[in-house]
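Action item from last week, closing it out:
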Amino acid sequence: MRILIVEDEALVALSLEGMLQDAGHTVIGPALTSAAAMRIIKDECPDLALVNINLKEERGAGIEVARYLLEYCGVPSIFVSGQILEARENRDVALGYINKPYNKNTLLRSVEIARQIICGEEKNITPNGLELFVDSNEPIKKK
């Protein structure tokens, strides 16, 4: 999968990038700001985005990136954040939520669940640490 990382903490972003690449995914970014994410999105269309909700530049900026990706590109996101209440309040723009700190197994299993949802496949058991906001086997259609 082609995965966009939107994360303002450079070390966290690099760690995510390494875990995803080691698992065979193509990483787009990482984007440390919402503006950087928007520039990347205009050049490359990911299959999935891992988005931190609150970026240093602005509270909730990641939510707006996830909303844009879904509404204009048909690309789903998973919130990767410590802001569970904000994630739940914006469940309409994301597939689910992974609470920080997370472990590699949870992250990779969550990405696989997202892939299954995107493709309309039967989902495996949801890993501990992933809260799904969708319960559908309908594939997500890219715009």
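Closing note: The chain has one domain: 2-132.
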